[in-house]
Design a protein that fits this description.
Length: 658
């Protein structure tokens, strides 16, 4: 019997990453693209000594006949945040969720470290195992691409995943070695890197086995990392190594972290804010809290505890500061329990959401537990229209705005003191919780044809075409579909068989060149390898004027700088590198790829992009795609002819040079 697994992802890159992980975990040595593949959903046959598998990729959420994310939104406090990948198995034509994965190639520091906490929070509630795969040992780069300090998350971030796992299901971070990790960092974190545990856990989940031992080993590695961080912290910025170990023992015994911190390890804490328009009363509220609060494992995080021993004085001063608080709010605030406060600026000066804050309240809840009383204080300049909806219909506000959804989902009460609001607003959970929530039907099966064709399909087809085609030698140096992370660009030196990689790519270079969406290295068409950069968009009007030269110039500029990492072609292990490549070692060609929706689209693109090649996609009503390839240089002609003469990997894709 063939096991059918679907890999649903943000894009084709996330699907490929998860497929690679599954193959490694299951011990699959070879795989082949399946005849059942569509241009939208590549599929692969794979086998172990015991089982046969059929994997189908579904790149891009929210564009299929059924919403697969409904399998994760089973509770009324669920968020619309989506993991990078959700792996399901088809059983009797129904998809059963097995595993959710988040990949984070960004440096895990500052508020970036908790930006994605909402995804773990929401997925954990659905009882689907969730693995947050992040990198350690990476360095921030300055404007000249020189290395600055190493960046790591506050230790409370990984600890919150452990705390949450104890209450729900497996929601754990996996730390892998960053490609830019140097020998010093590698030695420091050698007992933290967790690839072995990752593979065991993924294998066990896919095979339906227990993985308690591997999970415990992973938790110990996380605690080891936390203790390393604590050992290098100054003063009382965070708990000591021993205190963190004690905190871990507390939650393993199902005891309250908040109670433990209040009794044994009070950390000095003070709230500061530097935004324009901070109201006088908001500043006073911060001062009151700073007088009575302790930090939640840290003096730096925007969250704190008002211990019940200080609660009376705190409440008295707050009631004096805000005399318009409702009686029900005052009664809730006066409870004898410890109070947790999460501090949300939430909005930038123009009123748009500060996205990292979406993860702050879920992070606070994950860290402090389901029984903690959490007050969220919002002091940023939200648009004035927000406050009317906040008063009239907070449930609607939560269902239409991701930040408010996260705040309402994980809070017990909300207090607003914003320069854009005429009132000091306060509300309790009973008023903003969506009690009409009903889980949608979870007996679903997703068909491999999107309800709407778009940029994801442009990228998926181009990626599959150039990486799976036989008869042309191509190395994929970068693939950046919608939702990609621009984690790096690689080139391959065939002589020494080393892959060189630049990390932390800027969107625009110093010469205002444009970062490509794809970079392919093509061999055998000339005496030098060709760096073929592609700009992909959904439609003709999104493509920029003169983009071809800007794409090439981006690579010219990058080649003037040293690479950040290297590895042997046959190895998965990266090493820090500052090797210098030369522009003279390559030829350069550019392309634009888009969907031709109307007859006038091609003329528009041809007259503005200034590329060597144009890929024009045409789809018929049966899901068959024809790519018409237009040529504008001799190098472009070589590339187009090589692609068309090779063996196309997809049966419902045809290529023609025009």
């Amino acid at each position: 019997m063939i096991r059918k697994l679907n890999i649903h992802g943000d894009n084709i890159v996330e699907c490929e990453r998860a497929f690679k992980l599954c193959k490694k975990a299951l011990g699959i040595k070879t795989s082949s693209i399946a005849k059942e593949s569509t241009v939208f959903c590549p599929a692969y046959n794979a086998s172990t000594e015991i089982d046969d598998y059929f994997f189908t990729f579904f790149p891009g959420y929210g564009r299929w006949n059924k919403d697969i994310l409904s399998l994760l939104h089973t509770e009324k406090d669920s968020l619309r945040e989506a993991p990078d990948v959700l792996i399901t198995e088809i059983e009797k034509e129904i998809e059963k969720p097995l595993l959710a994965i988040e990949y984070c190639g960004a440096l895990p520091a500052g508020n970036q470290a908790w930006q994605r906490s909402g995804r773990g929070y929401s997925t954990g509630k659905s009882k689907v195992p969730y693995l947050y795969i992040a990198e350690l040992g990476g360095y921030e780069l300055d404007s000249n691409r020189n290395r600055k300090a190493a960046r790591t998350p506050n230790p409370a971030i990984p600890f919150s995943y452990i705390t949450y796992t104890k209450e729900y299901s497996t929601v754990l971070p996996i730390y892998e070695k960053s490609p830019g990790c140097d020998e010093k960092s590698e030695r420091l974190y050698q007992d933290v890197f967790s690839e072995e545990q990752l593979l065991v856990i993924v294998e066990c989940i896919l095979l339906g086995k227990e993985y308690t031992e591997a999970e415990k080993e992973l938790e110990n590695k996380i605690i080891k990392f936390i203790q390393i961080k604590a050992a290098t912290s100054r003063g009382t910025v965070t708990l000591s190594e021993e205190q963190w170990k004690q905190a871990y023992n507390v939650i393993c015994n199902n005891e309250s972290l908040i109670t433990f911190l209040c009794k044994n390890n009070p950390v000095n804490w003070k709230k500061t804010a530097y935004i324009e328009g901070l109201t006088e009363t908001a500043q006073k509220f911060m001062d009151i809290a700073s007088k009575y609060a302790i930090g939640i494992t840290s003096s730096k995080l925007p969250m704190c505890i008002i211990p019940n021993s200080n609660k009376g004085k705190f409440v008295e001063e707050v009631n004096t500061l805000y005399p318009s608080l409702t009686d029900t709010f005052k009664k809730w605030l006066s409870k004898k329990d410890n109070l947790v406060i999460a501090w949300i600026m939430g909005f930038k000066p123009r009123g748009d959401d500060a996205r990292p804050d979406r993860g702050l309240v879920p992070f606070t809840r994950m860290l402090t537990g389901k029984n903690a009383d959490i007050l969220t204080f919002v002091y940023g300049p939200a648009p004035a229209a927000t406050w009317k909806l906040f008063e009239d219909n907070p449930v609607k506000l939560g269902t239409t705005n991701g930040l408010w959804e996260a705040i309402f989902s994980a809070s017990d009460a909300v207090l607003v003191d914003s320069a854009t609001s005429k009132k000091k607003l306060n509300i309790l959970k009973a008023e903003f919780q969506n009690n009409n929530f009903r889980p949608v039907d979870t007996n679903i099966s997703v068909l491999p044809t999107p309800t709407k064709i778009g940029e994801n399909d442009v990228d998926t087809i181009l990626h599959t075409l150039l990486t799976q085609t036989k008869g042309i030698e191509v190395f994929e140096g970068m693939c950046n579909p919608p939702g990609g992370d621009w984690s790096g660009i690689s080139v391959l030196n065939k002589k020494n068989k080393i892959e060189y990689r630049w990390l932390s790519l800027p969107r625009v270079s110093q010469t205002e060149a444009k970062r490509p969406d794809h970079v392919f290295q093509i061999f055998g068409l000339s005496d030098k390898p060709i760096l073929f950069s592609v700009e992909s968009k959904e439609g003709a009007r999104e493509l920029e004027t003169g983009i071809g030269e800007r794409l090439n110039r981006y690579l010219y500029d990058l080649l003037k700088t040293s690479v950040n990492a290297e590895r042997k072609e046959t190895s998965e292990n990266w090493n820090y590198s500052d090797f210098q490549l030369s522009k003279d070692d390559f030829l350069f060609a550019s392309a634009a790829a888009y969907i031709c929706f109307r007859d006038s689209d091609f003329d528009l693109v041809e007259n503005k992009v200034d590329c060597d090649v144009i890929f024009s996609y045409y789809f018929d009503e049966n899901g068959i795609c024809t790519i018409k390839i237009s040529i504008y240089s001799e190098l472009g002609k070589k590339i187009a002819e090589a692609i068309c003469n090779a063996e196309c990997p997809l049966e419902n894709l045809s290529l023609v040079i025009v």
